[in-house]
Design brief:
Elements: H1 27-37, H2 42-48
Length: about 50
């Protein structure tokens, strides 16, 4: 059996169900980590692992 899929010629988009943009979940934690790493050299960051 062969199944062939083809795109619709006129696609109807349901814009009512699209979620609105939200802020990232870990934004505060990311900013905290970024602030702590900005003053460090690459060698120091590698040694943290």
């Amino acid at each position: 059996m062969k199944i062939i899929l083809s795109p619709a010629k006129k696609m109807k988009v349901d814009t009512d169900s699209i979620d609105t943009m939200s802020s990232p979940v870990f934004l505060e934690k990311t900013e905290e980590i970024l602030g702590g790493m900005q003053g460090r050299r690459i060698k120091e960051i590698v040694e943290m692992q």
